[in-house]
Design a protein that fits this description.
Layout (H helix, E strand, L loop, with lengths): L3 H12 L9 H18 L10 H10 L10 E5 L7 H7 L7 E6 L2 H14 L3 E5 L2 H4 L8 E3 L6 H12 L4 E6 L3 H8 L3 E9 L7 E10 L6
Parallel strand pairs: 1-2, 1-4, 2-3, 4-5
Antiparallel strand pairs: 5-7, 6-7
Helix pairs in contact: 1-3, 2-5, 7-8
C-alpha cells in the first residue's frame, strides 16, 4: 500500500518540474486518487512505481506535450493506465480543436480510462481493441506516441503508415535506446533526434520525424 507521505512528497517533486499547470492540478489529483483505488483490483501500473506515480508517470508523460505544442491530433497506442495519453488529454482540456485517441486492448484498463476521463473532464476518445485493428480507422494524425509498450522497431512497424503521412513519433525510452535504434536501423531509414527526459536521468525521448523502410521508394 502506498504511503500518503511518499505520495505527498512525490507530488511536490513533480510540481517543482513546472510541467503541470495549477489549473490542471485538481484533475490530476482525481486521476491519482482513482489510480490508487483501482490498483488493488486492476493492477494498472507496476506496484513499485505507485509511491512515485506523480514523477514516474504523470510528470514523465506531461513532458511530451512541449515537444509538439501545436499538434492537434494525438494517438497513444497501448495506453495502459493512461500514460501518456490521458495525461495529455487532461492538459489539453482547454483546446477544443485537439483530439486525443487512446488505444488499449485490456478491457479492465479501458474501464479505468473511461472512469478517469469522465471524472476529470478529459476529452479522450478511448478505443478498446487491438492496435492493428483500430489504428487504420483513425486517419492521419500529428503525433503517435507509446510508452513502455514495445521495442522501437515494433513501434515503427505499428505506426509506419502515420509516420509516412506527416505524423511524428514521440517515444519515451530508457537506457537501451541506442541498442533499439541499432536494431531498428536494419529495417528502417529513420530521421530522428533524441532529447533527455526531465524526470529520469537515464531516460531519453526519441522523436521520429520521417520514416522509410529499406527498399521502399516511398517517403
Amino acid at each position: 500500500m502506498q504511503s500518503r507521505i511518499a505520495l505527498r512528497d512525490d507530488r511536490a517533486a513533480a510540481l517543482a518540474l513546472g510541467l503541470i499547470p495549477d489549473t490542471a492540478l485538481p484533475a490530476f489529483d482525481i486521476y491519482v486518487d482513482l489510480l490508487c483505488r483501482w490498483q488493488d483490483i486492476k493492477n494498472l501500473v507496476g506496484p513499485r512505481t505507485l509511491d512515485h506515480v506523480w514523477t514516474r508517470h504523470v510528470a514523465d508523460s506531461a513532458q511530451l506535450l512541449p515537444l509538439a505544442p501545436t499538434a492537434r491530433k494525438w494517438i497513444d497506442i497501448g495506453t495502459g493506465a493512461g500514460f501518456p495519453g490521458l495525461v495529455l488529454a487532461i492538459l489539453l482540456r482547454g483546446r477544443p480543436d485537439c483530439e486525443i485517441h487512446l488505444i488499449e486492448s485490456n478491457s479492465r484498463k479501458c474501464a479505468f480510462l473511461r472512469a478517469v476521463s469522465r471524472e476529470t473532464g478529459a476529452h479522450a476518445q478511448i478505443h478498446a481493441g487491438r492496435i492493428e485493428d483500430i489504428l487504420p480507422r483513425l486517419g492521419e494524425a500529428d503525433v503517435i506516441t507509446a510508452r513502455a509498450l514495445a521495442p522501437l522497431t515494433e513501434l515503427l512497424a505499428l505506426g509506419k503508415d502515420l509516420l509516412r503521412t506527416g505524423a511524428i513519433g514521440i517515444f519515451p525510452k530508457g537506457q537501451d535506446l541506442e541498442a533499439e535504434l541499432t536494431v531498428a536501423a536494419k529495417s528502417w531509414n529513420i530521421d530522428y533526434h533524441i532529447v533527455p527526459s526531465v524526470t529520469d536521468p537515464q531516460g531519453r525521448i526519441c522523436i521520429v520525424r520521417q520514416l522509410r523502410e529499406h527498399g521502399s521508394d516511398h517517403g
